[in-house]
Amino acid sequence: MISLTSPVRTRAHGWPAAAKLALLCGATVVLFARTDIGFQAAAFVTALGLYLLGGRQFARQGGAALLQLWPFVVLVGVWHVLTGDIEAGSVIILRLLTAFALANLVTMTTTLWQMIDVVMALTAPLRALGLNTRALALGMALVVRFTPALADKGTQLTQAWRARSPRRASWRIVMPFTVLAIDDAENVAEALRARGGTNP
Amino acid sequence: MERNLTLVALFAALIAALGLIPQLTLAFGVPITAQSLGVMLCGTVLGAKRGALAVLLFVLLVALGLPLLAGGRGGLGVFVSPTAGFVVGFPFAAFMTGLVVENWRQGSLALVAGVAAVFGGIVVLYAFGISGLAWSLDKPLSEAALLVTAFIPGDLIKAVLAGVITAALARARPDSVLSRA
User: Each residue of A31-79: pLDDT tens digit?
Assistant: First the structure.
Protein backbone atom coordinates (compact mmCIF):
# COMPACT_ATOMS: atom_id res chain seq x y z
CA MET A 1 0.00 0.00 0.00
CA ILE A 2 1.26 3.43 -0.91
CA SER A 3 1.47 5.84 2.02
CA LEU A 4 1.37 9.61 1.65
CA THR A 5 5.12 9.96 2.25
CA SER A 6 6.70 11.96 -0.59
CA PRO A 7 9.05 9.97 -2.84
CA VAL A 8 11.03 13.20 -3.31
CA ARG A 9 13.77 12.95 -0.64
CA THR A 10 14.23 16.09 1.42
CA ARG A 11 16.56 16.76 4.32
CA ALA A 12 13.57 16.51 6.68
CA HIS A 13 13.10 12.83 5.70
CA GLY A 14 16.13 12.01 7.85
CA TRP A 15 15.02 13.91 10.96
CA PRO A 16 13.62 11.91 13.89
CA ALA A 17 9.84 11.49 13.55
CA ALA A 18 9.24 12.19 17.26
CA ALA A 19 10.98 15.58 17.00
CA LYS A 20 8.94 16.54 13.92
CA LEU A 21 5.70 15.56 15.69
CA ALA A 22 6.64 17.54 18.81
CA LEU A 23 7.45 20.61 16.67
CA LEU A 24 4.15 20.23 14.83
CA CYS A 25 2.20 20.06 18.10
CA GLY A 26 3.90 23.24 19.34
CA ALA A 27 3.37 25.09 16.06
CA THR A 28 -0.33 24.12 15.92
CA VAL A 29 -0.95 25.29 19.50
CA VAL A 30 0.70 28.65 18.73
CA LEU A 31 -1.28 28.99 15.46
CA PHE A 32 -4.58 28.53 17.24
CA ALA A 33 -3.57 30.83 20.13
CA ARG A 34 -2.66 33.84 17.95
CA THR A 35 -5.44 35.82 16.27
CA ASP A 36 -3.48 38.68 14.65
CA ILE A 37 -3.41 38.67 10.87
CA GLY A 38 0.27 39.69 10.61
CA PHE A 39 1.41 36.60 12.50
CA GLN A 40 -0.91 34.29 10.55
CA ALA A 41 0.26 35.69 7.20
CA ALA A 42 3.92 35.31 8.19
CA ALA A 43 3.27 31.72 9.34
CA PHE A 44 1.56 30.90 6.04
CA VAL A 45 4.41 32.33 3.98
CA THR A 46 6.90 30.37 6.14
CA ALA A 47 4.96 27.14 5.56
CA LEU A 48 4.97 27.77 1.79
CA GLY A 49 8.72 28.46 1.98
CA LEU A 50 9.27 25.11 3.73
CA TYR A 51 7.51 23.33 0.86
CA LEU A 52 9.60 25.19 -1.72
CA LEU A 53 12.79 24.10 0.10
CA GLY A 54 11.88 20.55 -0.92
CA GLY A 55 11.97 21.46 -4.61
CA ARG A 56 9.33 22.08 -7.25
CA GLN A 57 7.88 18.58 -7.44
CA PHE A 58 7.66 18.33 -3.64
CA ALA A 59 5.89 21.72 -3.46
CA ARG A 60 3.47 20.67 -6.19
CA GLN A 61 2.52 17.54 -4.22
CA GLY A 62 1.94 19.65 -1.12
CA GLY A 63 -0.16 22.10 -3.11
CA ALA A 64 -2.34 19.27 -4.42
CA ALA A 65 -3.03 18.16 -0.84
CA LEU A 66 -3.91 21.74 0.19
CA LEU A 67 -6.46 21.92 -2.64
CA GLN A 68 -8.83 19.62 -0.74
CA LEU A 69 -9.53 22.55 1.60
CA TRP A 70 -10.95 24.79 -1.15
CA PRO A 71 -14.65 24.34 -0.24
CA PHE A 72 -13.94 25.64 3.27
CA VAL A 73 -11.83 28.52 2.01
CA VAL A 74 -14.64 29.58 -0.36
CA LEU A 75 -17.28 29.11 2.35
CA VAL A 76 -15.48 31.16 5.02
CA GLY A 77 -14.44 33.74 2.41
CA VAL A 78 -17.98 34.33 1.13
CA TRP A 79 -19.37 34.33 4.68
CA HIS A 80 -16.98 37.03 5.89
CA VAL A 81 -17.36 39.16 2.76
CA LEU A 82 -21.12 39.13 3.39
CA THR A 83 -20.76 39.94 7.09
CA GLY A 84 -18.12 42.57 6.32
CA ASP A 85 -15.57 41.15 8.79
CA ILE A 86 -12.87 40.41 6.24
CA GLU A 87 -9.91 40.50 8.63
CA ALA A 88 -11.37 37.83 10.92
CA GLY A 89 -12.16 35.69 7.85
CA SER A 90 -8.60 36.04 6.55
CA VAL A 91 -7.21 34.94 9.94
CA ILE A 92 -9.43 31.81 9.92
CA ILE A 93 -8.49 30.90 6.33
CA LEU A 94 -4.75 31.51 6.82
CA ARG A 95 -4.72 29.53 10.07
CA LEU A 96 -6.60 26.65 8.46
CA LEU A 97 -4.22 26.51 5.49
CA THR A 98 -1.05 26.84 7.60
CA ALA A 99 -2.09 24.23 10.18
CA PHE A 100 -2.96 21.80 7.40
CA ALA A 101 0.19 22.55 5.42
CA LEU A 102 2.48 21.99 8.43
CA ALA A 103 0.74 18.74 9.44
CA ASN A 104 0.89 17.51 5.86
CA LEU A 105 4.58 18.43 5.71
CA VAL A 106 5.28 16.00 8.57
CA THR A 107 3.23 13.29 6.81
CA MET A 108 5.09 13.89 3.53
CA THR A 109 8.54 13.66 5.11
CA THR A 110 7.99 10.71 7.48
CA THR A 111 7.64 7.08 6.44
CA LEU A 112 4.92 4.83 7.82
CA TRP A 113 7.53 2.73 9.59
CA GLN A 114 9.07 5.75 11.35
CA MET A 115 5.56 6.71 12.52
CA ILE A 116 4.87 3.17 13.75
CA ASP A 117 8.16 3.28 15.71
CA VAL A 118 6.90 6.43 17.48
CA VAL A 119 3.58 4.72 18.29
CA MET A 120 5.39 1.67 19.66
CA ALA A 121 7.67 3.90 21.77
CA LEU A 122 4.65 5.82 23.12
CA THR A 123 2.78 2.62 23.96
CA ALA A 124 5.83 0.98 25.61
CA PRO A 125 4.75 2.03 29.14
CA LEU A 126 1.50 0.09 28.57
CA ARG A 127 3.55 -3.10 28.32
CA ALA A 128 4.51 -2.66 31.96
CA LEU A 129 0.78 -2.68 32.77
CA GLY A 130 0.46 -6.07 31.09
CA LEU A 131 -1.01 -4.92 27.78
CA ASN A 132 0.14 -6.73 24.66
CA THR A 133 1.48 -4.04 22.31
CA ARG A 134 2.61 -6.73 19.86
CA ALA A 135 -1.07 -7.23 19.06
CA LEU A 136 -1.26 -3.54 18.05
CA ALA A 137 1.73 -3.88 15.71
CA LEU A 138 0.30 -7.07 14.24
CA GLY A 139 -3.13 -5.43 13.86
CA MET A 140 -1.61 -2.50 11.93
CA ALA A 141 0.26 -4.90 9.64
CA LEU A 142 -2.95 -6.88 9.04
CA VAL A 143 -4.89 -3.74 8.04
CA VAL A 144 -2.12 -2.66 5.65
CA ARG A 145 -2.19 -6.14 4.10
CA PHE A 146 -5.95 -6.60 3.96
CA THR A 147 -7.16 -3.23 2.69
CA PRO A 148 -5.97 -3.82 -0.90
CA ALA A 149 -7.09 -7.48 -0.72
CA LEU A 150 -10.59 -6.45 0.39
CA ALA A 151 -10.72 -3.64 -2.17
CA ASP A 152 -9.94 -6.27 -4.85
CA LYS A 153 -12.77 -8.45 -3.60
CA GLY A 154 -15.09 -5.44 -3.70
CA THR A 155 -14.15 -4.84 -7.34
CA GLN A 156 -14.76 -8.51 -8.18
CA LEU A 157 -18.17 -8.43 -6.47
CA THR A 158 -19.10 -5.27 -8.39
CA GLN A 159 -18.04 -6.85 -11.69
CA ALA A 160 -19.94 -10.05 -10.93
CA TRP A 161 -23.01 -7.92 -10.20
CA ARG A 162 -22.61 -5.95 -13.41
CA ALA A 163 -22.37 -9.16 -15.43
CA ARG A 164 -25.79 -10.18 -14.14
CA SER A 165 -27.72 -6.92 -13.83
CA PRO A 166 -28.10 -3.69 -15.75
CA ARG A 167 -28.58 -1.83 -12.45
CA ARG A 168 -25.75 -0.49 -10.30
CA ALA A 169 -24.49 -2.75 -7.52
CA SER A 170 -24.06 0.02 -4.88
CA TRP A 171 -25.06 -1.06 -1.37
CA ARG A 172 -26.20 -4.55 -2.38
CA ILE A 173 -22.63 -5.82 -2.40
CA VAL A 174 -21.89 -4.60 1.14
CA MET A 175 -23.49 -7.69 2.70
CA PRO A 176 -21.48 -10.33 0.72
CA PHE A 177 -18.47 -8.05 1.11
CA THR A 178 -18.79 -8.16 4.90
CA VAL A 179 -19.27 -11.96 4.88
CA LEU A 180 -16.05 -12.30 2.85
CA ALA A 181 -14.22 -10.08 5.34
CA ILE A 182 -15.47 -12.15 8.27
CA ASP A 183 -14.51 -15.44 6.58
CA ASP A 184 -11.05 -14.03 5.84
CA ALA A 185 -10.69 -12.95 9.46
CA GLU A 186 -11.57 -16.45 10.73
CA ASN A 187 -9.05 -18.07 8.36
CA VAL A 188 -6.29 -15.64 9.30
CA ALA A 189 -7.03 -16.14 13.01
CA GLU A 190 -6.60 -19.87 12.56
CA ALA A 191 -3.36 -19.39 10.62
CA LEU A 192 -2.03 -17.05 13.33
CA ARG A 193 -2.90 -19.55 16.07
CA ALA A 194 -1.15 -22.30 14.12
CA ARG A 195 2.00 -20.15 14.02
CA GLY A 196 2.10 -19.36 17.73
CA GLY A 197 -0.42 -16.52 17.89
CA THR A 198 0.29 -13.08 19.30
CA ASN A 199 2.51 -14.42 22.11
CA PRO A 200 5.05 -16.69 20.46
CA MET B 1 -7.19 -13.38 21.20
CA GLU B 2 -6.15 -14.08 17.59
CA ARG B 3 -9.79 -14.20 16.46
CA ASN B 4 -10.60 -10.90 18.13
CA LEU B 5 -7.46 -9.32 16.69
CA THR B 6 -8.13 -10.45 13.12
CA LEU B 7 -11.81 -9.44 13.28
CA VAL B 8 -10.79 -6.00 14.57
CA ALA B 9 -8.11 -5.65 11.86
CA LEU B 10 -10.38 -6.92 9.09
CA PHE B 11 -13.17 -4.52 10.03
CA ALA B 12 -10.65 -1.67 10.07
CA ALA B 13 -9.67 -2.74 6.54
CA LEU B 14 -13.39 -3.00 5.66
CA ILE B 15 -13.93 0.67 6.56
CA ALA B 16 -11.02 1.58 4.29
CA ALA B 17 -12.27 -0.62 1.43
CA LEU B 18 -15.79 0.85 1.71
CA GLY B 19 -14.20 4.28 1.26
CA LEU B 20 -13.10 3.17 -2.20
CA ILE B 21 -16.68 2.70 -3.40
CA PRO B 22 -17.18 5.78 -5.62
CA GLN B 23 -18.20 8.76 -3.56
CA LEU B 24 -20.45 11.72 -4.02
CA THR B 25 -19.11 15.05 -2.81
CA LEU B 26 -21.90 17.40 -1.94
CA ALA B 27 -21.60 20.97 -0.75
CA PHE B 28 -18.88 21.97 1.76
CA GLY B 29 -16.55 19.09 0.90
CA VAL B 30 -17.93 16.54 3.36
CA PRO B 31 -17.98 13.52 1.08
CA ILE B 32 -20.90 11.06 1.14
CA THR B 33 -19.34 7.62 1.13
CA ALA B 34 -19.98 4.13 2.39
CA GLN B 35 -17.20 4.76 4.92
CA SER B 36 -19.50 5.82 7.75
CA LEU B 37 -21.57 2.70 6.99
CA GLY B 38 -18.38 0.78 7.82
CA VAL B 39 -18.13 2.61 11.15
CA MET B 40 -21.76 1.76 11.95
CA LEU B 41 -21.17 -1.91 11.04
CA CYS B 42 -18.14 -2.07 13.35
CA GLY B 43 -20.43 -1.17 16.24
CA THR B 44 -23.44 -3.30 15.25
CA VAL B 45 -21.39 -6.41 14.39
CA LEU B 46 -18.35 -6.30 16.68
CA GLY B 47 -20.01 -4.61 19.67
CA ALA B 48 -18.89 -1.58 21.67
CA LYS B 49 -15.34 -2.45 22.71
CA ARG B 50 -14.10 -4.35 19.68
CA GLY B 51 -15.99 -2.07 17.29
CA ALA B 52 -14.36 1.00 18.80
CA LEU B 53 -10.94 -0.72 18.67
CA ALA B 54 -11.40 -1.51 14.97
CA VAL B 55 -12.28 2.11 14.18
CA LEU B 56 -9.47 3.37 16.42
CA LEU B 57 -6.99 1.21 14.49
CA PHE B 58 -8.33 2.67 11.24
CA VAL B 59 -8.05 6.25 12.52
CA LEU B 60 -4.52 5.57 13.84
CA LEU B 61 -3.38 4.34 10.42
CA VAL B 62 -4.93 7.43 8.78
CA ALA B 63 -2.95 9.60 11.23
CA LEU B 64 0.25 7.69 10.49
CA GLY B 65 -0.05 8.63 6.82
CA LEU B 66 -2.08 6.00 4.97
CA PRO B 67 -4.59 7.42 2.46
CA LEU B 68 -7.47 5.33 3.81
CA LEU B 69 -10.16 8.01 4.05
CA ALA B 70 -12.61 8.36 1.17
CA GLY B 71 -11.08 10.21 -1.75
CA GLY B 72 -7.59 9.00 -0.80
CA ARG B 73 -7.23 11.44 2.08
CA GLY B 74 -5.06 10.74 5.09
CA GLY B 75 -2.11 11.95 7.13
CA LEU B 76 -1.90 14.39 10.00
CA GLY B 77 -3.52 17.21 8.00
CA VAL B 78 -6.88 15.45 8.38
CA PHE B 79 -6.78 16.16 12.11
CA VAL B 80 -6.51 19.93 11.73
CA SER B 81 -8.93 20.19 8.79
CA PRO B 82 -12.58 21.27 9.33
CA THR B 83 -13.77 17.64 9.05
CA ALA B 84 -11.43 16.49 11.85
CA GLY B 85 -14.35 16.19 14.29
CA PHE B 86 -15.93 13.46 12.19
CA VAL B 87 -12.73 11.39 12.05
CA VAL B 88 -12.09 11.82 15.78
CA GLY B 89 -15.74 10.96 16.45
CA PHE B 90 -15.64 7.70 14.44
CA PRO B 91 -14.44 5.46 17.35
CA PHE B 92 -16.96 7.02 19.77
CA ALA B 93 -19.74 6.52 17.19
CA ALA B 94 -18.86 2.81 16.85
CA PHE B 95 -18.64 2.43 20.64
CA MET B 96 -22.06 3.95 21.30
CA THR B 97 -23.63 2.00 18.41
CA GLY B 98 -22.22 -1.24 19.85
CA LEU B 99 -23.32 -0.35 23.36
CA VAL B 100 -26.95 0.01 22.24
CA VAL B 101 -26.92 -3.32 20.33
CA GLU B 102 -25.29 -5.15 23.26
CA ASN B 103 -27.79 -3.89 25.83
CA TRP B 104 -31.04 -3.83 23.86
CA ARG B 105 -31.74 -7.53 23.47
CA GLN B 106 -35.45 -7.51 22.67
CA GLY B 107 -37.01 -7.01 19.26
CA SER B 108 -35.61 -7.72 15.81
CA LEU B 109 -31.88 -7.26 15.37
CA ALA B 110 -32.44 -5.25 12.18
CA LEU B 111 -34.52 -2.67 14.07
CA VAL B 112 -32.19 -2.55 17.09
CA ALA B 113 -29.06 -2.25 14.92
CA GLY B 114 -30.73 0.43 12.78
CA VAL B 115 -31.72 2.53 15.79
CA ALA B 116 -28.26 1.98 17.31
CA ALA B 117 -26.65 3.16 14.07
CA VAL B 118 -28.82 6.31 14.08
CA PHE B 119 -27.78 7.03 17.66
CA GLY B 120 -24.06 6.24 17.28
CA GLY B 121 -23.48 7.02 13.63
CA ILE B 122 -25.58 10.19 13.46
CA VAL B 123 -26.29 11.70 16.92
CA VAL B 124 -22.90 10.96 18.49
CA LEU B 125 -20.85 11.34 15.30
CA TYR B 126 -22.47 14.67 14.36
CA ALA B 127 -21.92 16.01 17.88
CA PHE B 128 -18.18 15.51 17.30
CA GLY B 129 -18.30 16.60 13.66
CA ILE B 130 -20.20 19.82 14.32
CA SER B 131 -17.91 20.70 17.25
CA GLY B 132 -14.89 20.18 14.97
CA LEU B 133 -16.35 22.39 12.24
CA ALA B 134 -17.25 25.12 14.74
CA TRP B 135 -13.75 25.02 16.25
CA SER B 136 -11.88 24.97 12.96
CA LEU B 137 -13.96 27.62 11.18
CA ASP B 138 -14.46 29.73 14.33
CA LYS B 139 -18.24 29.72 14.00
CA PRO B 140 -21.00 29.12 16.58
CA LEU B 141 -22.27 25.54 16.88
CA SER B 142 -25.68 26.44 15.40
CA GLU B 143 -24.09 27.76 12.19
CA ALA B 144 -21.74 24.77 11.93
CA ALA B 145 -24.76 22.46 12.38
CA LEU B 146 -26.49 24.15 9.44
CA LEU B 147 -23.58 23.17 7.19
CA VAL B 148 -24.00 19.45 7.80
CA THR B 149 -27.79 19.03 7.82
CA ALA B 150 -27.63 18.19 4.09
CA PHE B 151 -25.83 14.94 4.94
CA ILE B 152 -28.31 13.60 7.47
CA PRO B 153 -30.72 11.98 4.92
CA GLY B 154 -27.81 10.01 3.40
CA ASP B 155 -26.71 8.87 6.84
CA LEU B 156 -30.25 7.80 7.74
CA ILE B 157 -30.23 5.52 4.67
CA LYS B 158 -26.86 4.13 5.80
CA ALA B 159 -28.27 3.42 9.28
CA VAL B 160 -31.16 1.46 7.74
CA LEU B 161 -28.62 -0.49 5.63
CA ALA B 162 -26.48 -1.16 8.72
CA GLY B 163 -29.56 -2.67 10.41
CA VAL B 164 -30.49 -4.83 7.42
CA ILE B 165 -26.90 -6.01 6.85
CA THR B 166 -26.33 -6.83 10.53
CA ALA B 167 -29.52 -8.93 10.65
CA ALA B 168 -28.50 -10.75 7.46
CA LEU B 169 -25.01 -11.39 8.90
CA ALA B 170 -26.55 -12.79 12.08
CA ARG B 171 -28.26 -15.39 9.87
CA ALA B 172 -25.25 -16.08 7.61
CA ARG B 173 -22.47 -16.02 10.23
CA PRO B 174 -24.15 -16.04 13.67
CA ASP B 175 -20.88 -16.71 15.56
CA SER B 176 -19.24 -13.62 14.09
CA VAL B 177 -21.85 -11.12 15.26
CA LEU B 178 -19.94 -10.53 18.49
CA SER B 179 -22.31 -7.77 19.68
CA ARG B 180 -24.89 -10.54 20.35
CA ALA B 181 -22.46 -13.34 21.25
Answer: 988 889 999 999 999 999 999 999 999 999 999 989 988 888 998 999 8
Establish if B174 touches chain A: CB-CB under 8 angstroms. no
For the segment B168-176, the average pLDDT, to the nearest whole number, is 89
Q: Give the alpha-carbon dihedral of B170, B176, B179, B180, to 10 degrees.
A: 50
B67 contact A CB<8A: yes
Q: Which residues of B touch A3 (CB under 8 A)?
A: 64-67, 74
- Domains of chain B by residue range: 2-180
pLDDT at A166: 87
Fold of B2-180: Arp2/3 complex 21 kDa subunit ARPC3 (1.10.1760)
**Which of A4, A69, A184 is closest, CB to CB, to B75?**
A4
Say how far apart CA B15 and CA B55 lie, in whole Å. 8
- How far is the alpha carbon of B169 from chain A, nearest alpha carbon, in Å? 7
Which stretch of A7-21, A91-105, B16-30, B155-169 has the lowest confidence by average pLDDT? Answer: B16-30
Kindly provide the ipTM of the predicted complex, given to two decimals: 0.88
Contacts of B107 (CB under 8 A, 6+ apart): none
In 3D space, the residue among B18, B15, B14, B44 whose CA is nearest the CA of residue B163 turns out to be B44
Scanning B72-131 for CB atoms below 8 A from A yields: 73-77, 79-82
The amino acid that residue A51 corresponds to is Y
Interface with A, mutate which of B14, B81, B151 (most A CBs under 10 A): B14
Domain definitions of chain A by residue range: 11-114, 132-194
Tell me if B138 and A92 make a contact (CB, 8 A cut-off). yes
Of A92, A181, A198, the CB nearest to B11: A181
Confidence of residue A195 (pLDDT cuts 50, 70, 90): confident
| C-alpha distance from B88 to closest chain A C-alpha (Å) | 16
Distance between CA atoms of B100 and B97, rounded to whole angstroms?
5
CA distance A26 to chain B (A): 13
Going B115 to B117 to B118 to B124, the CA torsion angle's sign is positive
Asked if B159 contacts B34 with a C-beta cutoff of 8 angstroms, the reply is: no
pTM flag (> 0.95): no
